Amino acid sequence: MRVLLSESQIAARLDELGHELSAAYRGRPLTVVGVLTGSLLFVADLMRKLDVPHQVGFLQASSYRTGTKAGTLSVNREYFPEITDRDVMLIDDIFDTGCTLSTLLELLQAARPRSLRTAVLLWKEGTQKVALQPDYFGFKIPNEFVVGYGLDHNQDYRHLPHIAVLEASDLA
Ligand code: 5GP
Ligand code: MG
């Protein structure tokens, strides 16, 4: 495995994002909505960098069922957060085709939030299939399969403190 983003690079970028988002949402009823499970560490660390009061909710959605191949998106509606009239920041780990975020945005919009924006830690370049672009992002990365800092391969590697590229030899 090859380290793409170190723990300290991620922390430094989260400091910047925290400042940017705190300024943008000061005095507003912010709810951060994370997409489980991949965004877990990103959301938890970002919350600690926000110096404005905010609520948090999670949506459970999965598109990668096995290995590195995408499946259809399934969304668990059971824990749908209360977001009506709130300023919502939808947070995912990675923006790849964009299908996950655009589907979840439609679902959240139907609950009539006051505003709705998106933030992703990683933005894969050149793989988008939708016109949507995230409002905030941590890093643009090349089109490679990455793990760590919440991101998995068959549920493994989420615990890594850094982001690494999973290479063919790692899968053999
Ligand atoms: P999209 O719907 O934008 O194609 O994909 C977003 C979801 O696919 C992410 O939430 C993530 O779960 C998964 N995904 C996309 N690229 C990668 C990757 O390189 N590594 C991992 N672990 N998951 C990915
Ligand atoms: Mg995901």
- Rg on CA atoms, Å: 15 Å
CATH class: Alpha Beta
The CATH topology is given as Rossmann fold
Distance between the termini: 12 Å
The helix content is 25-40%
**In terms of per-residue confidence, which ranges show pLDDT below 50 for 5 or more consecutive residues?**
none
Helix-strand topology string? EHEHEEEHEEEEH
Biggest sheet architecture: 6 strands, mixed
Overall CATH architecture: 3-Layer(aba) Sandwich
Strand order of the largest sheet: 4-3-2-5-6-7
**Tally of domains:** 1
Which small molecules are bound? guanosine-5'-monophosphate, magnesium ion
Give the strand content.
35-45%
How many individual β-strands?
9
Based on CA inertia axes, which overall geometry fits? globular
SS-based class: alpha/beta
Number of helical regions: 4
Average pLDDT confidence is 93
What does this structure look like?
- With 172 residues, this protein is an alpha/beta fold.
- The chain has a single domain (2-171), classed as Rossmann fold (3-Layer(aba) Sandwich).
- The chain has helices at residues 7-25, 40-49, 99-109, 168-171; strands spanning 2-5, 30-36, 54-66, 69-76, 87-95, 115-124, 136-141, 146-147, 163-165.
- The strands form 2 sheets. The chain has a 6-stranded mixed beta sheet, with helices on both faces.
- Strand 2 (30-36), helix 2 (40-49) and strand 3 (54-66) form a beta-alpha-beta unit.
- The longest helix has 19 residues, at 7-25.
- The radius of gyration is 15 Å and the shape is globular.
- The model has no long low-confidence stretch (mean pLDDT 93).
- It binds guanosine-5'-monophosphate (5GP) and magnesium ion (MG).
- Magnesium ion is lined by residues 35, 38, 92-93.
